[in-house]
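Fold it.
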Amino acid sequence: MTSKISFFKLMKVEGRYKSWLPALICLVLFISLPVACLLKLDGMMSSVKEGYLELETVRKSFQAFVGFGNLGRIIVTAGCAVVSAFACFSYMNSKQKVDFYHSLPVNRQKLFLAEFLNGLFFYVVPCFVCTVICIIIGAINSLLTGQIFLIAMEAFLMQVLYYLVLYLTGILAAVLTGKIIVGILAAATFMCYGPMVVFLIVGLAEMSFHTLMSVGSEVTYDIMSYLSPVFLCLITEAKLAGGETSFFCIGWIILMIALLFLLCFWLYCRRASEAAGHSIAFPKIEKPLKFLLVVPCSLTAGLLLKMMSYGSIWFFVGIIFGGIILSALIEFIYHLDIREIFAHKILMAAAVLTSLLVACGFYFDWIGYDSYIPDEDEIVSMSVYNSSINGNFYYGDSYDIGSGNTDIRALQSLSVTNFEPVYELAQEGIARLKESGSAYYEGDTRFVSVRYELAGEKEVYRNYYVSLEALNHTMDELFKDVSFRSKFFPLLGRDNSEVRYLNLSSVTGYTDLELTSKQKEELLRTYKEELEGVTFETLRTEPALGSIGFTYESRGTQLQMAAAETYYGGISQFSENYPVYESFTGTVALLKEYGYPVDEQLNASDIESVTISCYDPEFIRSDGMRAECVLTSEDEISQIAPLLRDNMSQFPVASNSFANMDIMVYMKNGNTLSLGIKSEDVPEFVIKALEKEFR
């Protein structure tokens, strides 16, 4: 017999028994939204009145608080969702309550919907009210605009979606379990299992594959977002805060909500009344669940043990013992009986054996990851990256505010179709790895990253250790192509109008270049022409007279730039330094004409003293102290002054030709210069002074 009681009356009756829950949610939301907003704005508005802040700055801060990127609000939403899920469905953990509810003349479908909607309204109504109060607070302080109002409403709707997906995850855990503690553990597992497996795979790959190159955290996070409701919410919020309209993530959240709702509804209707009090409500899922938990957890235990011990044997020991202990722990949670911890021994052995097979597959590289290199006829283009060669430039879109992965952007920007030199370099890297059995840096070995672009827009990334000679040969060959040089130096591909400021660094110090528009245009044109003709041999062997710093405005859409102001701290500029060589005669002449001689040498009569500290291994004492000498005589200073170079102006790859010395020049006017000197130019009296001091 089924009662015809009104659905809304049923909700009202059920809500009355849980009146503490909406009261708690109201209190938490009121403190975290209106109260926090009021406190935040009160301090900032006081600074506005005192003239320390502009009203527009406060408005942007208010927009960030009521809009996207408020991490505190997501944490509160997640907490409310989990508490609501277990509070609304807590009766399923008690046999007496289950018998009572199931004896009522109300079908399960209606009962589930009543509990579900109660938990939803307990959050949505107070969240909406608190959001409106925050908007009113902003309006009272003259901060509210139409755009901010719309953003606040959009952020509220996203919070409802976040709440729903986390709320349903908690309900799923409550339906599948019969004990509150086990339910909480299940909810945590559902929210973290996917990311944990992804991190585990990344950790195993980084431990095992010497040529592995991470293609960026964005890919890892995107994968995790598909597997975890928590990460999905966090990544969606981050993208929205960064100015992206992530329809895919929002659609994925809605799809996940629909699937979770149907699954919870279906399981709830089939859940046996006798399941209350049991750890797992559906006995058929106990074994698969145990297997899916033991395998990744035992691998994680082995990985952690290897990280602590640095011994490979402990990796496998950790897997075996971790698998046995975790299997026993799960059986104890299932049965709460110490005598049952080694039940299902075959399943335990299968889980441990599977873990060992996975571990061996990674550790011994059964898939041939390190030895893989695409056939030449499969490759469309290739590129190579080394931090000492092209690690100081901004490649790709000038915007990229707050993002990392400089190597990825460089590799994507430096592709060449005549890739034979790069292919040979990759082959050497693989041959070195096979010969040594491990990848490491020694002597004249250099670390490079290589990108293969294959047909069908497929990309393959690898890291290799190669000889310095081979790397130099590869770059020499690539630099013969003028189109590669144009890609290698991003300045050559940028419009002169993008350059906001110029500065000059040389042996005499640092100065801003104050030029007219015509002078600036002429200098940029001349420098670009000479830079385009430079060879890699010049970069690595010729000491630079100085360097020119170029400061650009970051580019992006209006939405991206607005997001940069609020989300990335207002970063809107970036700088690059390019060397000026003696062979750049046109640039040197123009700088001298404009009153900024880059080839000017230090005047020995202006120097008070020179302190030289050597960090060659032969000049480092057992206590770690370096050999150091101080030059004060006019004769010694006059000999070394013309040989000094500006360290900061040298192209990074050219630093190999410089002596391992820190040279501090103290000027009579009180200035201090940090300079360097080429190894072949170090005077004999400096070597003798260091040897004497070292003894």
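DSSP finds 25 helices and twelve strands in the chain.
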